[in-house]
Amino acid sequence: MNLLDPGSAVIIAGLAAEPDVAMISLRHRHGRADAAAELTALRRAYAGPLLVEPFSALDLPAIAEHADGVLVGAAWMQDFQLLRAVARTGRPVVIQRAPAATLEEWLSAAEYCVAEGNHEVVLCETGTRTHLPHHTLDLALVREAGRRRPVFVDVSSDPALATAALSAGARGLLLGEDAEAGRVAEARARAALLAPLLADGEPATVAGARAEIDRVDAALATLLERRAELAGLVQRLKPVGGFAGRDLDRERQIVEAMAARAPGLGADRIARIMTAVIEAGLQASEERDLSPA
Ligand SMILES: C=C(O[C@@H]1C=C(C(=O)O)C=C[C@H]1O)C(=O)O
């Protein structure tokens, strides 16, 4: 199983938040956890992709057996013995950048894994110590490193930075083992909205074009849900809401403005699409207002 998705950003967080890749750190119990027992129990509940941070090299056999990737924490980035042992598990390796490490130091940590024959190395930016209370992500570095290797970005301090991280080329977002579901959902929504904008080049195959359509549709669904929420808000703020409060002048203005942005579809087709969208939003809002709280 691969930690990278070729088309979209991978969301990595604790199992409870239902991420694409679940993460667990064996460091939390200061090495008192039995890695084999812990991972066996986890595997009974979860069969999806799993990224594990060891407490020490002693945990690696259990990780090799149960996990899909090994996370090397920032504090261990230059522990070359550990890096080599991790690489020898044959599992993809994710290497967090130490807070003061340069691009060259980070890339050379990856080279220790490659030297062991493991080419599946992903870098993970976790930030530099600055004047801010939490680490500051270095997005220029992410962009530069991303030209050489896939890069994840740890946005656990602020999921709103997901947009910036993905724009800088991040292939995945780490939200932390204890991330709340709402923060994971925020990062996921931002990733979905951005994905069609980050696509590069014209797909050459049916499968490629369909994958691209899936990304556009994911963004559309996210926007349609948001639009329906806003239309529902207007219904509650207007003197008369729902279908009874329909404003056809406003709807015509919306269609006109959208047709200017979608000349290929043209005003008539946009009008049909938007009528369906508007009516669906009004219907959802009327149903919600009728249903008991
Ligand atoms: C949201 C409103 O209510 C209705 C729904 C609209 C929409 O979904 O955009 C537009 C006009 C109205 O028919 C509004 O008046 O702005």
UniProtKB/TrEMBL annotation:
Keyword annotations from UniProtKB, A to Z: Transferase
A GO MF term: transferase activity
One GO term (biological process): chorismate metabolic process
Limits of the Chorismate mutase domain: 200-289
Name of a matching Pfam family: CM_2
Signal sequence region: none
Domain of life assignment: Bacteria
PROSITE patterns tied to this protein: CHORISMATE_MUT_2
InterPro entries: Aldolase_TIM, Chorismate_II_sf, Class-I_DAHP_synthase, CM_dom_sf, CM_II_prokaryot, DAHP1/KDSA
Protein name as it appears in the record: Chorismate mutase domain-containing protein
Species of provenance: Actinoallomurus iriomotensis
